[in-house]
Amino acid sequence: MLHHPNIVEIKHIMLPPSQREFKDIYLVFELMKSDLHHVIKANNDLSPKQHKYFLYQLLSGLKYIHAANVLHRDLKPKNILANADCKLKICDFGLARVSFSDAPSTIFWTDYVATRWYRAPELCGSFFSRYTPAIDIWSIGCIFAEILTGKPLFPGKNVVHQLDLITDLFGTPEAEAIAKIRNEKARRYLGNMRKKPPVPFSRKFPNVDPSALRLLERLLAFDPKCRPTAAEALSDPYFNGVAKTELEPSIQPISKIEFEFERRRLSKDDIRELIYAEILEYHPQMREECLHPEDQTTFLYPSGVDRFRLQFAHLEEHHVNGERRLPLQRQNISLPRERVSPTENNNDAHDIDFQSRGEDKSAHLFKSASISASRCVGVLPKEKSEAEETSSEVKNEGVDGLSQKIAVLQT
Description:
There is one protein chain. The protein is mainly alpha-helical and 411 residues long. It has 2 domains: 1-30 and 256-337 and 359-377, no CATH class; 32-247, Transferase(Phosphotransferase) domain 1 (Transferase(Phosphotransferase), domain 1, Orthogonal Bundle), CATH 1.10.510. The protein has helices at 36-42, 48-67, 134-149, 159-170, 175-179, 184-191, 201-204, 210-219, 230-234, 268-279, 284-291, 304-319, 359-367, 386-410, and strands at residues 10-13, 27-29, 34-35, 70-71, 80-82, 88-90, 97-98. Strand 5 and strand 6 form a beta hairpin. The longest helix is centred in the C-terminal third of the chain and has 25 residues, at 386-410. The radius of gyration is 28 Å and the shape is globular. 26% of the residues are buried. It catalyses: L-threonyl-[protein] + ATP = O-phospho-L-threonyl-[protein] + ADP + H(+); L-seryl-[protein] + ATP = O-phospho-L-seryl-[protein] + ADP + H(+).
């Protein structure tokens, strides 16, 4: 699903060292310098054009997500990555769920969805037993209001305070809207609330484009049925001359077959097997070999996860103590590498100051768009260099000498 300019892209998933015993999964995403939370906090002078461009990107990415029958359920500025060129990408799908109109699994969702400040009214106290894409639309509205003002719109301290802040702006909900609420305590609380008049958006958000406020009011409708879809919001007059619907990426809805496993009772081993099979989609050359383990007894070299841990352990050991050491040299390409030509003499690399290498190479490492999953395994054999042959001879001499010393000690 993650093939949209406004959704963070998974570049690589590292193959675990063991198919049956792994507990961690390492994913490599494209590098984004910051997030929308820090952009809003550091810039109190965003222009109207930037306001519009930010909202357009968010709605474009959300339209793509909803078209796949997926609800994000945790949209907030910290889950929107940002670059210096004002490009935004939606990330953190940890709470995302697939949504089928006739699927009973969508009925029993928890109330612990989305950070409270960006949580739709129907999620406060589990008002509705069935959620819709409108919950993400509300979150986008809260984020857009924060872009306009530089401050969170509804910074509630608890559920009741959150409802108070919402009704302070929109006024007391109509009896028809309150009657739709399934949670008895919440329904009683709103029913007994004193009548509050709504606050005009022009007063709440002064000096803001009126067309932007009209769209914001639609996004933040108390009744979820009154909120537009992401596609409808992109067709709002606010985006006249900006939106190019015909050029936006499209996607087919996710099939129920892909989530058939949720209807079965699965053990931990079953879940590991499903996850491992999914990871193998990023390792096409290993797919057949790993799906038929009887053809292979073990790996001939450490996995990408093992080497990833080894790199961090090495850096922590030496740099915490103020030492300057090069990171361990990679002998296999099971991790993303800097795309530079190797030097003729590997020993010269040890004379390089580790910290003087600069950020350009490290940035190049993570920005590489060609982290090929198929290259993480199946390395073709190559002829040994003179340095490798010399190193091998030295090792053999060292082993022979050690054997002779042990023999002398035993006699």
